[in-house]
Each structure stands twice: as structure tokens, then as C-alpha cells.
Amino acid sequence: MKKKIFLITGGSGGHFFPALSLYRSDEKKLFDYFFLVDDRVEKLAKNNSCKFENVLTPRFTGSIKQFMTNLFGIILSIIKTTFLFIKKRPNLVVGFGGYTSIFPITLAKILGIKTLIHEQNAILGKANRFLSKIGTIVAITFKKTKYSPLNSKFTGIPVRKKINVKKTTKKKILLIVGGSQGAAVFADIVPEVLKLFDKKFKKEILVIQQVRNEDYNKVKKKYQQLNINFILKNFFKNIYKNISISDVVITRCGSSTLAEIELFKKFAILFPLPSSMDNHQKLNAKEFKKKNECLIVNEKNINYSYIAKVLQNKFFEKKKLVKRNLKPYNNSLLDLIKKIVS
Predict the structure, then answer these.
(1) Percent of the chain beyond pLDDT 70?
(2) Edge to edge, what strands does the sheet with 114-119 contain?
(3) Taking CA 44 as the corner, what is the angle to CA 69 and CA 280, rounded to the nearest 5 degrees?
(4) Which of 7, 154, 253, 300 is most solvent-facing, going by the fewest CB within 10 Å?
(5) How far is residue 51's CA from residue 128's CA, in Å, rounded to a whole number?
(6) pLDDT tens-place string over residues 135-156
(7) DSSP-assigned letters across all residues of 8-58
(8) pLDDT tens-digit series, residues 25-61
């Protein structure tokens, strides 16, 4: 019988997608994986055909009116999670960060179940900092992860198997991704940058951009006025395909996205989210720049003409981008799990 692995992935896609990549990277299906999610991640688990239960603690709010609802949800979450642990008795519980991982990892320690936490960012999150102090093994994406214990295991971040998709157009492709917050900002920034392109170059590019529904018509109108070819999507179902065919990527600095860009060796223009916890996106970007070609932009002080110049050079310069023979940091989390449960 296969050993059971619980993957704790509540909170956001930033916690879910590394877990999903771990699951898919186990091509031999050595283990029986089971996802524990919350309301925000449930749809992602469904769309990716994962075995899961929605049992994790609901989001805290500052609303006094919702205090009792939250309290009831927390108690119900504790009961459901405890019942699930006792019923399925996993061999290993792996947390991918965020406050939703605190109770499941702590419960596993109480029940004598092996535990592991993975930190995606260049700074150990507060939940993982707490869990690292109760004897949980810590796996890190970056070798110099701030606040990580000295005995942390450097595994990199899981990414799915690389696919190479052939372009069906001769146009230079600019891919823009960034989640809801990135999509909102880029809806304004990118058209302003492309407005500064030489007229002859505008006809030679194709923009593939993630936009929010409320920004769709606004962005569409801007590109039509600029005579730029575009494809606008609310969500990319196959982000690997889009990264593969792109020439340049504009993005926020979530660690999973950066790992995927590195996997395909693409030039990136990075906009760290200023409000990210402990400014971790800026740290992620700095770590990424150590091994990859990129431009890091402070969105509070944007030099539009400089970004336009960099983009034009990367699209149309005769010299190709440097293809560095780098091993991406998606290496050994699965190997570590094999050692722990063996």
C-alpha cells in the first residue's frame, strides 16, 4: 500500500501551486497525495483534479460582526481536521506556508506523524518561523532564506516538467502575468510603456496579458488605439505554454512564477509587490537576479521610457539573449520526502 502524504495548501495560489507541482513531479506516483485546502483554494484543487478536503481554518477578518462566525468556523475546522488525521493516518504532513498550516502541522506533531514545511520565499514566513521551532523539518527555496534554521534543507521549489511549445507567429510575444493585484497594476503600466515604442515595432509584437474582468474593456481599448495585437485572459489555464512561447515576461515576484521563468530561461521585467509580507517579493527578485537576466522595477518610481528601451532592445536586438546553462531550483523536495518516509 502506498504511503499517504497530506499537502497543506490553504490561503492562496502561491501556497497551492508548489504543492501541485510536487504532486505532478512524482511521475511514478510513489505516494498517495491528499490536499487539505480552504475556501480560497478549493476551486484550484477541483480544476486540477486533486483529491482534497476543504477543512482548513477560514480567513480571519477584522469585522466584529463576523467574529462569532469565524470562531465557529475555526472550531469546526479543528474538529474536521482532527477527524481526517485520525481516519486517514498520513505518513507525512507537508505544509506550504500561511497561517492555515499551523494547526495541521501542530496536530501532526501531537499525533506523532512526521512533518515537513516548505518555504517558497526568500524570507521565512511567520507561520513557518513558528513551526520551525517545534521540531518540524524546514525545506527552503533559496539557500540564503532569511530567518531559516541552520539545519534547513535546500530543495528549491517544485515546478512541473518543462514543455516546449513552438510559436505559431513571427511576432515577438510579451507575456504579462501577476495575479489579481499584478493584473490591476499592469493594466495601466504596460500600455504606457508600449505607447513609447517606435511605430514600426508596435506592429511586430503580440501582447498576451492577464487582466481582471473589470479592466478588460479599458485595456482592450488602449491596445486598439496603439494598433498592437493582443490576447487578454482573466486566467491562464496553461501558463507553461504561454511562458514557453514568450520572448519577455512582465510579472510580480511570486517564487513559483520566478521558478517557471527560470526553467524556460526567459528575460523578465519584475515588479515586486510593495505590500508583500516582510517585503518578500523584493527579496525573491534579488535572489532571482543572481542567476537570471532581468530588470527589477519599483512601481512607485517608474521610468517608462527606460523600460520601453529595454523591451525594444530585448525584442529586436540582433544579439540573442544569453542562454545560461543553469540548473533551476526545482530539484529535490520529492527526494527529501522519500528520505523522510522511508
Answers:
(1) 92
(2) 52-54, 31-37, 3-8, 92-95, 114-119, 137-140, 153-154
(3) 80
(4) 300
(5) 24
(6) 999 999 999 999 999 999 999 9
(7) E--S-HHHHHHHHHHHHH-TT--EEEEEEE-HHHHHHHHHTT--EEE-SPP
(8) 898 999 999 999 998 899 999 989 999 999 987 665 5
